[in-house]
Amino acid sequence: MQTYDFIVVGSGSAGSVLxxxxxxxxxxxxxxxxAGGTDRRFYVQMPLGYGKTFFDPAVNWNYRAEADPGLAGNxxxxxxxxxxxxxxxxxxxxxxxxxxxDFDAWAAAxxxxxxxDDLLPAFKAIEDNEAGADAWRGSGGPVHIxxxxxxxxxxxxRYLQAANQAGLPLNPDFNGASQExxxxxxxxxxxxxxxxxxxAFLWPAMKRANVRVETDALAxxxxxxxxxxxxxxxxxxxxxxxxxxxxxxxxxxxxxxxPQLLQLSGVxxxxxxxxxxxxxxxxxxxxxxxxxxxxxxxxxFKGRLPTLNQxxxxxxxxxxxxMQYILLRSGPLSLSMNNAGGFFRTDxxxxxxxxxxxxxxxxxxxxxxxxxxxxxxxxxPGFSIGLSNxxxxxxxxxxxxxxxxxxxxxxxxxxxxxxxxVAEMLAALKFVRRIAAQPALAEIxxxxxxxxxAVQSDADLISDFRRRSGTVYHPVSTCRMGPDLLRxxxxxxxxxxxxxxxxxxxxxxxxxxxxxxxNAASIMTGWKGAEMVLEDQA
Length: 538
What we know:
Helix content is 27%, strand content 21%. By secondary structure, the protein is α/β, with parallel strands linked by helices.
């Protein structure tokens, strides 16, 4: 059996960082096990190729949640990256850290070292921000952050003006002094190509002699001697293999796969494991529980001015933007689908924003079956204003269905399962209409297409957003961090409670969700986790 100092299960946003940071000194050997394959694919590297990867089983787990009463009984599609870079290789690339108060609350819950001031140096060290370094932004780091203010569709300016007319300040940097307001989103891209965690961290690490990356390697079980993790069993191309960890096993599978692997290995809810005939190594009811996710919806409008629909729908337009991208690495295909957005409070009495906005200069009311709607823009000029909640109070869970590691786990989202979540979404959608009613947008809007002017009463608005809402792909907290072993899965140093030699380092450890897109914080967690691992080797 081969032995490595560290075995990292998963090459996603955190796992890629771990591979680079743990191997940098040359002192330690690192094995990365990735269930998927290569990320060196055209539509993975092209930012707007997001649409092509949304259902592609070659790079996407394509999970599906259980029918959800909170979503009018719908079964929500859950894309998760199944390739080098994980979900950072198939996401929309909006670079948002979260609010200071998010991380300060983590620290206040008994997690020293996780306050905003503790984490700001890590965020800055990670970044190479095109806008330049300042008190909040970093430069020279491995993740290039593109400033898109001079690249977005002209209609974006009208959206920003309308939101400003509705009372929101213009914000040049959501990762700066304050998150509140509207502005153009920064994205993790460089030279018109996606800057995934794999490109930023794993590709350089793979050049080192002390790093080995195995693709198509599905981890099936953590191996133990007593209550110490000593290795991993995995399946690769029809063979079952085992490897040994001389120092630690680090699970970085993300909020779906990390609790799944722990449960398959006998670490999880006692009744669940007993019912499936899995020997219990350490009973912990929190493994897979406490799941939090952001839920969102779009309001779509038909405009009187051209939008991206007029260039992305016809064959000649596709050819034009394709050539622009291939030859110059510029144009719509080099950007995120979300040109701009913002953060606002549904109640002025709140101390900080609780809702996030997204502006898309295209519309996709009439999608083709089996395709991400972005691939089939509508035949008329349309645009969308989307929003999602920042800190929902609804909680779900992710639990295995069987002892077979290839069976997808059961994802129970429980969206809008609290009155507070319903009330804030109702208020937020009324504010979206308020933005659309401002002069900068009202003068170019022909009609509201979805949900349409007939949907006016609170009851109808709630019915509509239950029917049309869905995940915005930010699940966290299924292996929650905290000092209390009765309420959490890992301690503040990300060590699994009750187990030696085993950590979980990815977004599943978030004590609570952050306010905004989770990828930047996931990468930061890998950076912070690597620091802790290295410190503890002394």
